[in-house]
Design a protein that fits this description.
The protein has five helices and five strands, in the order E-H-E-H-E-H-E-H-E-H. By secondary structure, the chain is α/β, with parallel strands linked by helices. Strands 2-1-4-3-5 form a five-stranded parallel beta sheet. Helix 3 (81-93) links the parallel strand 3 and strand 4 (98-103). Helix 3 (81-93) packs across helix 5. The chain is globular and about 45 Å long.
């Protein structure tokens, strides 16, 4: 199952990009044997004052056809890392070829796009900077792959 992190805004070189690249490389290595990956980040522009609807249209174009859509949203489900790993395995086992994890802009995700999602995930009630949210998604993908592989990375 291929994974695309669809995010509003451009990430410049720096520590966040380094972390994302590292975790996605680890995910690709670990997930390959599990039928997970590759994973990539696809960025869409964040035009000033364009609003959620315009960003939603850009994000929709970035979604692979037929993909499972998982939005990152503060109103989403707060689940454990093993439960997230189970979600990934479940979608993979259903034969879903693509997963799109959607991270909106500063104002959030267009309500119309949010309504189309198969699942909505929250990293808690706190709001996180979008660049850190990308790092957290990348790390959780790697963690999920290690959980499914039985690796000692995740210690619960």
């Amino acid at each position: 199952m291929r994974i695309r992190i669809c995010a509003v805004g451009r990430l410049r070189a720096g520590p966040e990009k380094t972390l994302i690249d590292d975790y996605l490389k680890r995910f690709d290595r670990t997930g390959r044997a599990l039928g997970l990956g590759p994973a990539e980040v696809l960025e869409v522009g964040d035009r000033k004052n364009a609003g959620m609807v315009a960003e939603g249209a850009l994000l929709r174009r970035a979604l692979p056809g037929g993909a499972v859509i998982c939005t990152l949203d503060e109103r989403g489900a707060q689940i454990s890392s093993p439960d997230f790993a189970g979600k990934l395995a479940g979608w993979r086992d259903q034969g879903r070829g693509d997963l799109a994890i959607v991270i909106g802009g500063a104002d959030g995700i267009d309500p119309g796009l949010r309504a189309e999602a198969d699942f909505s995930l929250s990293f808690g009630k706190m709001v996180w900077p979008h660049m850190l949210a990308r790092v957290m998604v990348a790390e959780q993908l790697y963690r999920a792959a290690t959980i499914l592989a039985g690796s000692p990375y995740h210690r619960a």
